[in-house]
Design brief:
Length: about 160
Amino acid sequence: LLPRYPDFTAIIVGAVVPEQLAFAGELKRKIEAAGLQSRIIITGELPIEDVVRWYQRLTIYAFTSRNEGFGLTLIEAMSAGAALVAARAGAAEFVVEDGVTGVLTPPGDADALAATLEPLMRDPAAAAAMGGRARQRVVDKFSLDAEAGAIAKVYRALI
């Protein structure tokens, strides 16, 4: 998609664990062969304050995990106002309101991922609106106040 949408850059953040070294090397070779090394940035592991700055620059966050627990990165991206494209893995279906705060895709399906990303890349204003709704969902459902209220409600019911 990047060759068709020159205003977008892909960012990959995180450490490469030893068992992923071969994959990471092959990915870098493919990026170079495609001439996209200036448009796909691989940061490696970063301090949390740097990660926050990257979140703040996002239009779209692609969550491509095939197996994930709660997936805190979804909440972090939403709180920064990014539209989500998320694989139906772990808690993504609980966190993402499909078609409202993001779009859910089948895990491991690169074609479906691209088909879901493209409309948002074609219409950044729609992606920004989706990101605004995502941010509001975090405030309403996943903020400290919302969590504390939900816990207090459980305790009140038990008492």
